[in-house]
Amino acid sequence: MKAIEIENLSFSYTKDQEVLKQLNLEIELGSHVCIIGHNGSGKSTLAKLIIGLLEAKSGSIKVMENEVNEKNIHTIREKVGIVFQNPDNQFIGSTVRDDIAFGLENRRIPQEKMDDVIDEFSKKVGMFDFLDQEPSNLSGGQKQRVALAGVLAMNPDILILDEATAMLDPKGRKEILTLVSKMKGDNPNLTIISITHDIEEAYLASRVVVLSDGKIMFDGIPNEVFSHYEELLNIDLDIPFLVRLKRELKNKGIDLDDALNEEEVVRRLCQ
Amino acid sequence: MSVKFENVSFLYLPKTPFEHLALDGIDLEIKDGTFTAIIGHTGSGKSTLVQHINALLRPSKGKVLVGDYVIDAADKKVNKLQELRKYAGLVFQFPEYQLFEETVLKDVAFGPKNFKDSEQVALEKAKKALSLVGIEESLFNKSPFELSGGQKRRVAIAGIIALEPQILVLDEPTAGLDPQGAKEMMSLFKTINERGTTVIMITHDMDNVLKYCDRAVVMKDAKIVKIEQPSELFKDEELLKEISLEEPHIISFAKKLIANGMNLELSEIKDFDSLIAQIEKARSVK
Amino acid sequence: MKNIALGRYVPYDSFLHRLDPRTKLLSLIALMIMIFFKFSSTAMNFFIYALLLIFIYVLMRISHIKLKTLFKSLKAMWVMILFLLIINVLMPSTGPYFDIFGFKLYHNAIYNTLYIVIRLVMMIALTMILTTSTKPLDLTYALEWLLHPLKYIKVPVHEISMIISLALRFIPTLLEETERIMKAQSSRGVDFEQGKLKDKIRAIVSLIIPLFISAIQRSEELANAMEARGYDPSGQRTRYRKMQWQMKDALSLVFIVLLFGGMITLLVTSFDFFLMMGFVL
Question: How many domains does chain C have?
Answer without folding.
Answer: 2
